[in-house]
């Protein structure tokens, strides 16, 4: 069982109408995790929820989370109420098998990052690891959302592209709105990947998002594109 690490909310920023970035400062000398993993937020009453870590490393004792506000849930409201109060909030973890495994050994391999919605938080952490370590392989980011507002850090991705010349970014919307004036890819994000990579024998996939999206990708990539199951990490 992972020990609990007390923490407090250092900052809260709104990334989109229903998405918050929460910065936590941890009451610990060090906190090690692999980029892509997640933690549990734990309230004083024992209630907990899982959230991906959106930062590649624990810098100055802080980590970032991307949280979608859900009107029918009180958990996030209760978390936000702990701001400035000691002893009310903690984290447990890290958890999860989704983390960056380093550059593939096989020459000609492609690294494909797939995010749906706030699943981008884990993918962002992996991207930060790629920026730090570099990659000799092409990296393809596919980010799926319902409408343009769901791609809440698109400007950050576009900045990263300036320092990662081997990074390509393919946004995919399933229900673009008139205000999006969308001329890009539409439909399901994993199907966009399949259209671009009908043969995935030499692909290495990192995926995070809605369970239905991830399981569809896992199944279809293996069944129709020949992706080795060991090369799908989610």
Give an overview of the whole structure.
- This protein folds into two domains: 4-95, Translation factors (Elongation Factor Tu (Ef-tu), domain 3, Beta Barrel), CATH 2.40.30; 110-233, 3-Layer(aba) Sandwich (Rossmann fold).
- It is built from five helices and twelve strands.
- It has helices at residues 75-80, 120-133, 154-163, 189-196, 211-225, and strands at residues 4-16, 19-26, 38-43, 48-52, 62-68, 89-95, 110-116, 139-145, 167-173, 185-186, 203-208, 232-233.
- A six-stranded antiparallel sheet has the order 4-3-6-1-2-5. It has a six-stranded parallel sheet with strand order 10-9-8-7-11-12, sandwiched between helices.
- The longest helix has 15 residues, at 211-225.
- The two termini are 22 Å apart.
List descriptors:
single chain; 234 residues; alpha/beta; Rossmann fold; 2 domains; 6-stranded antiparallel β-sheet; 5 helices; globular
Note the total helix count.
5
Strand order of the largest sheet: 4-3-6-1-2-5
Task: State the helicity in percent bands.
Answer: 10-25%
Average pLDDT, to the nearest integer? 95
